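re: the backbone from monday

yeah here it is again, tokenized this time
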């Protein structure tokens, strides 16, 4: 027997500011669905998700959630008034006995529940919003760019959690690797139409290109038919005017249909043009040492950056990636070591905090007010790589329409702010590009174009990113900052780094296995008989066992309430399922620890 959809949207129509966003839209989300929601920036992805969540009411149509189904939405800009800490906010939808879930999720997402809301950054607030959703564990999760402001380790944790959940979810993300790993179906918003394909994101681009190819063929056939009918209308209508007026009306309808077809939005006209050529050696760093409050950031790092290199810097949030960039640029002095710059450097910086954008300025003023873009005596023009351009024309290159030119920056979406910042960056000549989290909020097509442009750029690129696919496509060298001052240089992108790191770990394990055995064996020596990965697992399993035991204890306390089943059957069911899951995990962890202990002693 077919199960009812978790959520059903029927014949939804919605208009903002006189422009239709959707018309006649119908979408179903089934139990266990793992759906990628994709589309260009401004196509309505976030709006559709808010309609799904019940936060935006459609002008017409019906939204129906299955009886008893909870729908959770991750807020992009959560309002935390009335909550003292991030943890208070994240636990606000939970009973007191369930608050432990926030601590579990906070550990994976790397945010401090005790952090005061008044001083929390935008990234910390978004992580708290994601933690709130994960802790509440609704039957349907609506996730809008959940990986923004997460480092690679936290993304991996979230990826694993979503793989194991029984809940359905709809996911908006620019992170190709994340989407490929998690989704089994795709909803594609294109010019107000939503199409569904029963294949995960991995098959999206081939499907999209086929749809566009078929569309172009149909448009070509329609153009030929209009041309043919138009010729007949001119040459053959006079003799049989009354008899053929129906054919004339059909031609008029055909022309109206063709005129009403919405052309696909083009890609932003991104173009990084390098200025005068830098010296062959761009940056030479020797023996860099850096610490903050006694915590090492760098230990004896040496690096040579040559013209044309694409250097990616990866590592957890807070490990010092941006600090390393500033040291290499000469903005921060290291505690020890030297940094030498080559000749004729022209640096352009893309700042992840979007600090270069004043939220109260209009898009027009953001460009004309930039001293490097100002054209003397021309209030409506900007200087773009040495050539004057009209402000509106240049904004259109980055997919902004004329109506947006006088709108404030604060009204823009995250992706639109990124495009505006890229517009400012690309207007100037440079031979060294510094890109600090450039992929946040950009749509897939703009990311594709950015990757292509960086490949053709004649200068040098320093890149900080958590987007694994982007790193693989762009980077020629990766600096992995893994904490405690360790910064290791690897050839290639993210996958190359992971492969090389794994090979190094295997070599270390093999060396330990071949090392002479000592007599008598100490506990430490026994442990070192395991492989590198097994040794790490053996040492961390007791912490996992303690954690699972504590969670089981809290669940037992919740289930000890004899009235819980009759009062809140849905909560009773969730707690029972969680108890069974954790008991199974505990049994598996204890068995794994015993096996490794025996091997260590053998």
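seq for it, each position gets an aa:
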């Amino acid at each position: 027997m077919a199960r009812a959809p978790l959520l059903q949207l029927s014949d939804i129509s919605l208009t903002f500011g006189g422009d239709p966003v959707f018309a006649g839209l119908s979408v179903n989300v089934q139990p266990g669905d793992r759906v990628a929601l994709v589309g260009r920036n401004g196509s309505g992805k976030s709006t559709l998700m808010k309609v799904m969540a019940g936060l935006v009411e459609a002008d017409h149509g019906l939204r129906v959630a299955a009886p008893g189904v909870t729908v959770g939405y991750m807020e992009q800009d959560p309002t935390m008034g009335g909550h003292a800490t991030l943890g208070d906010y994240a636990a606000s939808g939970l009973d007191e006995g369930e608050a432990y879930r926030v601590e579990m999720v906070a550990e994976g997402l790397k945010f401090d529940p005790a952090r005061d809301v008044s001083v929390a950054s935008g990234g910390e607030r978004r992580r708290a919003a994601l933690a709130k959703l994960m802790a509440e564990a609704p039957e349907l999760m609506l996730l809008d760019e959940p990986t923004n402001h997460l480092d690679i380790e936290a993304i991996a944790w979230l990826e694993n959690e979503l793989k194991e959940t029984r809940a359905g979810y709809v996911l908006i993300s620019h992170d190709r690797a994340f989407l490929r790993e998690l989704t089994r179906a795709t909803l594609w918003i294109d010019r107000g139409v939503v199409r569904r394909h029963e294949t995960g994101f991995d098959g999206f681009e081939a499907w999209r290109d086929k749809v566009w190819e078929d569309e172009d063929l149909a448009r070509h056939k329609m153009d030929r038919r209009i041309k043919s009918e138009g010729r007949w209308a001119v040459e053959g209508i006079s003799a049989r005017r009354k008899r053929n007026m129906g054919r004339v009306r059909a031609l008029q309808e055909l022309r109206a249909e063709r005129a009403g077809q919405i052309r696909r939005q083009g890609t932003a006209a991104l173009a990084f043009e390098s200025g005068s050529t830098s010296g062959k050696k761009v940056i030479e760093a020797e023996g860099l040492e850096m610490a903050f409050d006694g915590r090492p950031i760098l230990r004896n790092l040496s690096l040579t950056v040559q013209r044309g290199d694409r250097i990616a810097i990866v590592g957890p949030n807070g490990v010092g990636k941006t600090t390393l960039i500033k040291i290499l640029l000469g903005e921060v002095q290291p505690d020890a070591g030297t940094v030498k710059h080559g000749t004729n450097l022209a640096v352009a910086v893309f700042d992840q905090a979007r600090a270069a954008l004043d939220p109260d300025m209009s898009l027009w003023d953001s460009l004309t007010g930039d001293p490097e873009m100002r054209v003397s005596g021309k209030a409506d023009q900007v200087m773009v790589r040495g050539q004057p351009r009209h402000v509106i024309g240049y904004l259109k290159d980055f997919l902004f329409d004329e109506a947006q030119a006088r709108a404030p920056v604060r009204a823009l979406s995250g992706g639109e702010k990124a495009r505006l910042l890229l517009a400012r960056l690309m207007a100037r000549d440079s031979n060294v590009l510094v890109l600090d989290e450039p992929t946040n909020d950009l749509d897939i097509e703009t990311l594709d174009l950015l990757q292509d442009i960086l490949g053709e750029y004649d200068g040098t690129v320093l890149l900080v990113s958590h987007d694994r696919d982007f790193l693989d496509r762009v980077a020629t060298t990766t600096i992995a900052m893994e904490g405690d001052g360790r910064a290791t240089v690897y050839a290639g992108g993210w996958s190359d780094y992971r492969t090389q790191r794994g090979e190094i770990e295997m070599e270390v394990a093999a060396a330990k296995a071949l090392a002479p055995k000592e007599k008598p064996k100490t506990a430490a020596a026994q442990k070192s008989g395991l492989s590198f990965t097994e040794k790490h697992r053996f040492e961390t399993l007791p912490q996992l066992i303690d954690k699972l035991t504590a969670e089981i204890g809290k669940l037992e306390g919740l289930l000890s309430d004899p009235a819980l089943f009759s009062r809140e059957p849905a909560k009773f069911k969730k707690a029972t399922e969680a108890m069974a899951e954790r008991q199974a995990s505990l049994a598996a962890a204890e068995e794994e620890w015993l096996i490794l202990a025996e091997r260590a002693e053998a």
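The chain has 19 helices and 21 strands. The radius of gyration is 29 Å.
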